[in-house]
Amino acid sequence: MSRETVILITLLAYKLVLIGIGFWASRRTSSTEDFFIGGKTLGPWVAAVSSSASASSAWSLLGVSGAAYMLGMSALLLFPAVVGGYVFNWLWLAPRIRELGNHTNAITLTELLAGKSPWTRAIAIASSMTVVFSFAFYIAAQFQAAGGTFSSSFGMSIESAMLTGTVIILIYTMLGGFWAVSVTDTLQGLLMAVVAIILPLAALWEVGGPNALLTSLSGGFNAEQLSLSGSFYGWAGFAFVVGMLGIGLGNPGQPHVVNRFMAIRDDRAMALGKVIGIAWPSLVYGGMLLLGLCARVLIPVSADNEQVLFEVTNLLFHPIAAGVIVAAVLSAIMSTADSQLLVAASSLSYDLKQQTDAKKGLVISRLTVVVMCVVSLSIALFAPEAIFTRVLFAWAAIGAAFGPLLIVLLLGYQVKGQYRFLAILTGFSLTVIFSWMENTPGDIVERLVPFALAFVIAWIGREKNRRI
């Protein structure tokens, strides 16, 4: 049996399970609230693993390992940046947003941020447009990654590969909504965690252990790759480090992540969810960084640094294991794409035009998922761009738009409607503008300035005597 056949069988079995979950979830979905937030009944494992997996795209497996392979020690800054964002979300944000969501009966993050004022409609429109614009490109990046993985595994064209992955995601997301996305994300997240443990440890064993790895890297990396600030020194080096750490600022504002917190069923589930939700990214991101460094020793020259995960897999494992690894990469892609499709659909069908009829609302929601799939697939096919760049832009834009206002609200303040609108608009538009300008070390301006200014605006607009 050939390697391609083994991979195909593994993937087919895996995708049939996902589609089966979609049909199961469709029986639990009878209202718009069920479709978008699961009736607020998530347990700790589903909430924690699915929220973590939905925040981690192909970037977490291919991008992070590739960054460590290419950049060297400066890539290690990704660990405190990303994991720090998870820690903040679970320890501080999650219990507060669940309480606020229950208090306001909000189903989506946009609904929570919009509040009730003469500016509510304008805020909902601005938030929805921000989500749809950013996620269209973010989802397109996932489709590109899925296409690349299928194409490299089976020799099929990129176009056919993208279409195959898109159809699978569309089927189970449209069928079961939030329940399908959450349960499949949990399965995918657990698979990603297993791969992030086994593969790096096998690579470290092959290298000869930690000491042998450090010795090899000191001889194989140049001075820039051995420095935490990369090729930057002095003030530029400081800016690079701060900019890299600033990636974590995007975590609190991600709608497809925080809606899992709003859906947790009780305090006991929240307590266990915190442990799982912090342990998962620690394993995955730590493992992928270690893998990238080991790959530098095992495969000194690679044509594509973002493919070293596959190269190490082929070097160390049987084709059956290769099939599981490919499935894990696709799960990382799909766990992000499906969640973002759902959030984008909620922004268009629920936040902009709430439906009083449950069945009609569900039909519109599912049709919106189809439209977003088509738009994102079109972008992936006809306007391809580097996955790494596209993902970080969308992450920063959404985080700067929603994170600052959400933090002020969760501190217990109301914020005047016009300041809510201005904070969202400022965070998003400045990120877009700065992304068009010449890059700064670590993209410090793009990642920090919009977030900081949006927070200042929301803070100025707070009403001290109106506690939530």
Instruction: Give the biggest sheet.
Output: 2 strands, antiparallel
Cα Rg: 21 Å
How far do the termini sit from each other? 63 Å
Unreliably modeled segments: none
Q: Helicity range of the residues?
A: over 70%
Beta-sheet strand percentage?
under 5%
Structural class: mainly alpha
Order of helices and strands: HHHHHHHHHHHHHHHHEHHE
Secondary structure tally, helices: 18
The rough form would be described as: globular
Topology readout:
Blueprint: H1 3-26, H2 32-37, H3 44-55, H4 58-71, H5 78-104, H6 109-114, H7 120-154, H8 158-207, H9 210-220, H10 234-245, H11 255-263, H12 267-298, H13 308-316, H14 319-351, H15 358-382, H16 387-410, E1 413-415, H17 417-436, H18 444-460, E2 462-467
Antiparallel strand pairs: 1-2
Helix pairs in contact: 1-8, 1-14, 3-8, 3-11, 3-12, 3-14, 4-12, 4-14, 5-11, 5-12, 7-8, 7-14, 7-15, 7-16, 7-17, 8-12, 8-14, 8-15, 9-12, 10-18, 12-13, 14-15, 16-17, 16-18, 17-18
Descriptive report:
By secondary structure, the protein is mainly alpha-helical. The protein is 78% helix and 2% strand. The chain is built from 18 helices and 2 strands. The protein has helices at 3-26, 32-37, 44-55, 58-71, 78-104, 109-114, 120-154, 158-207, 210-220, 234-245, 255-263, 267-298, 308-316, 319-351, 358-382, 387-410, 417-436, 444-460, and strands at residues 413-415, 462-467. A two-stranded antiparallel ribbon has the order 1-2. The N and C termini lie far apart (63 Å). The mean pLDDT is 82.
